[in-house]
Amino acid sequence: MNTSEIKQIIYHNKMTNFQIFAVAVCVLISLIDGFDVLTIAFVGPVISAQWQLSAEQLGILFSAGLAGMVIGALIISPFADKFGRRFIILCCLVILTVGMFSAGFANNHSQLVIARIFTGLGMGAILPGINTVVAEYSSNRYRSLAISIMAAGYTVGALIGGMIAIYVINYFGWQYVFFLGGLFSALLIPVVFYQLPESLDFILTQKSHNRLAKLNQLLTKLGLTHCADFPKLDQAAPKKASNLSLLLSAKMLKATILLCISNFMLMCSFYFLANWTPKILVSLGYSTDLSISGSLIMNIFGIIGGLLLGWLSKKYSVQKVTSLMLIAAFIVVIAFGFSNNYLPLLFVLIAFIGFTIFGAMAGLYATAPAIFPPQIRATGTGLVLGLARLGATLGPYVAGLLIAAELPRGHYFFILALPLLVAAACVFIIKPYQQQ
């Protein structure tokens, strides 16, 4: 068999238990990543009151982990092309473990900012790796659904984090929310080490002396026949530079730019809402428990939205469904900003925000593998998600500046909802690589 035949069997045959389990491990990693990323949103109101932080300082704290994620996605994740997805994922889990425990031991604003930036390195680099593994080990029929479930795992992690935070903060203190995140990340290290397979494309393109043995081990787990000799590549494996050249070539440039803009804009609004919603509810006079409950509602309906998008993508264009969700999210976010201070109404709007914006995020995750051809899929996904994290950093910080300037709630919600319209327009006109 050559490399194309091996891939075609995986992509067109029914998914084996091994493939399903590989996807499940990535979903579990995504779950822990969601817990770690949004922990700061749950403990933020308590830390703000305890340390007497200004809105600008709190905005910096919210953005610190996201800034680290930009660095991780752009600087660390490319090393997966040299050392393998599995190795980088393991390194990221170690970073997450150390960073989360460091955050729990922080004694002031500066220490916590540094700890969150360090944690962000792992959070940012781990997502491109698991996104690529899920795409490679899923069949064509279920790829969008599998990636949507992985994205929903992120939301489940945030949901679990919120549920735990209410209890842990009240009985043990906010520090222990970080300690639990570090513990969860540490427990995943042996799971990934023993159970997560290496990227198929990495095995097929590496030049190590034992690559045939690694390939045959993987083929055994996939239920396929061993190869007597290492299969010939259909084309010479492109180097990193040629990957980037192809990514920015005349054929791919438009799609690359549009996908980067759509992810950047969505994350700008998404992380503003994810981080600031509990604090905004507290500022409206509600308790910390009720404010965290608002985040729980957002995440619960976000799971439903993400899974629904995955199901719809089997029948309809994932890009069109994603665009509609982005437009709906824009409308609901503005409605929340200008709504009355009536808790049932606020919770209903928060539920719709979660449903649409988390669903749209799952849609964009599923769009990337369809946009980039296989030979540059990992490089393209890393670039897109890295720039998306830049938007994630910008959103919460800009919100802090606008709130500190005492801008009315409806006004700054309108400003930070506008990126959703831009994202909708961009994702709607992107063409899959087969049509480019």
Nutshell version of this structure?
With 436 residues, the protein is mostly helical. It contains 17 helices and no strands.
Describe this structure in words.
This protein has 436 residues and is an all-alpha fold. It has one domain (17-435): Growth Hormone, Chain: A, CATH 1.20.1250. 80% of the residues lie in helices and 0% in strands. Helix 2 (17-51) packs across helix 12 and helix 12 (253-283) runs antiparallel to helix 15 (343-371). The longest helix has 35 residues, at 17-51. The protein is globular, with a radius of gyration of 21 Å. It starts with a helix and ends in a 7-residue tail after the last helix. The model is unreliable at 236-241 (pLDDT under 50).
The description of the largest β-sheet is:
none
Question: What is the first-to-last residue Cα distance?
Answer: 29 Å
CATH class: Mainly Alpha
Number of domains: 1
Query: What is the helical fraction, as a range of percent?
Result: over 70%
What gyration radius follows from the Cα positions, in whole Å?
A: 21 Å
Q: CATH homologous superfamily - what is it?
A: MFS general substrate transporter like domains
Q: Structural class of the helices, strands and pairings?
A: mainly alpha
Overall morphology: globular
Mean pLDDT over the full residue set: 84
